[in-house]
Amino acid sequence: MHRKIAIIGDRFMLPEVFRIEIEKACGNSLDIRTLETAWPDEPMEFGNTALGLDKVKEYFGHPDEVVDFVGDAEILVTQLAPLSDGMMRRLPALKLVAVSRGGPINIDMAAAKAHDIRVVNVPGRNASAVAEFTIGAILAETRLIRVGHEALRKGEWRGDLYRADRTGRELSEMTVGVVGYGNIGTKVVRLLRAFGCRVLVCDPYVQLSADDRNAGVELVAFDELLSRSDVVTLHSRVTAETRGLINKDTIAGMKAGVIFINTARGPLVDYDALYEALVSGHIACAMLETFAIEPVPSDWPLLQLPNVTLTPHIAGASVRTVTYAAEQAAEEVRRYLAGLPPVNPC
């Protein structure tokens, strides 16, 4: 009897990519069914008490449709499908959920443990993609790429940007503060080192690698990082401790004229305080990739500021992210079927 696997993908994590990698890892003797949902062309959701989804967030899919599709499958492979306690009660055959993202926040983990369902994830799946994007974001601000681009699109030749009092600075003469030294932060540090800048790191829960330490990277307190950095870039997870980390008080502790980068998470930032600092010039400019509300409202004040670069939460999207995440999920499926322990249990 063939083991049954339900794959719920989307238009980023394509279900056929999951299927291909699972068949490579496990062979062709599986009963696999696939479903493609409309994300990211349609936005994900962040909790719905009426549907029993108050303990999950960043998901896509109606619980009844998910349950009907998964049915008697033993294994669910997905990126965004929600899974609540009530849904698990309706899926008695389900034993493994492979979530192809770093944080399985679309799964009620307490309920999964209660139902003896193994949940695995793919930590750092998009770390390289986000790190590369972050370097691009920093350069867009330090070298006035955004400013020059926007002016030229309007037919304005900004020759004045060549003036010594207006042109940008090279990273080799700047200090960059990296907040968070996890999968992404460590890669950002490695890339920054190639530019010859001074790199400061703040993360109270880790130590620097010997390689970074020997290269002159400094591990410092948060206040010191803010006061010394010409560029501050966020790479922390959202926790009770880090929510609203960048606020009126911490912004006041930043060097005047600092450049601010957020390719991490929107709730790390008090955007009202950031707006005021950008208007006053205390923060010279910012590159923002994630937001407290997504999609952002069309009348959001930050959209109107001339000193902000904005992108719609795409830093983690790359072709390699898709294939890597599918490969790792497939390996977890293989190990489960072989009776082996998971690589990345949640």
Can you offer a commentary on this structure?
The structure is a single chain. This protein is 33% helix and 15% strand. It has helices at residues 15-26, 63-70, 85-89, 109-114, 127-142, 145-153, 183-193, 210-214, 222-228, 248-252, 271-280, 319-337; strands at residues 4-9, 31-36, 75-78, 96-99, 118-120, 175-179, 198-202, 218-219, 231-234, 258-262, 283-288, 308-310. The strands form two sheets. The protein has a seven-stranded parallel beta sheet with strand order 8-7-6-9-10-11-12, with helices on both faces. It has twelve helices and twelve strands. It is of the alpha/beta class and 346 residues long. It folds into two domains: 4-125 and 318-337, Rossmann fold (3-Layer(aba) Sandwich); 127-310, NAD(P)-binding Rossmann-like Domain (Rossmann fold). It is elongated.
Helix share, percent: 25-40%
Q: Characterize the overall form.
A: elongated
The CATH superfamily name of the largest domain is NAD(P)-binding Rossmann-like Domain
- As residue ranges, the low-confidence spans are none
Q: What Rg, in angstroms, do the CA atoms define?
A: 22 Å
Mean pLDDT: 97
Order of helices and strands: EHEHEHEHEHHEHEHEHEHEHEEH
Annotated CATH topology of the largest domain:
Rossmann fold
Strand content: 15-25%
**Beta strands, count:** 12
Query: Which sheet architecture does the biggest sheet show?
Result: 7 strands, parallel
Oligomer: single chain
Distance between the termini: 29 Å
Strand order of the largest sheet: 8-7-6-9-10-11-12
State the CATH class of the largest domain: Alpha Beta
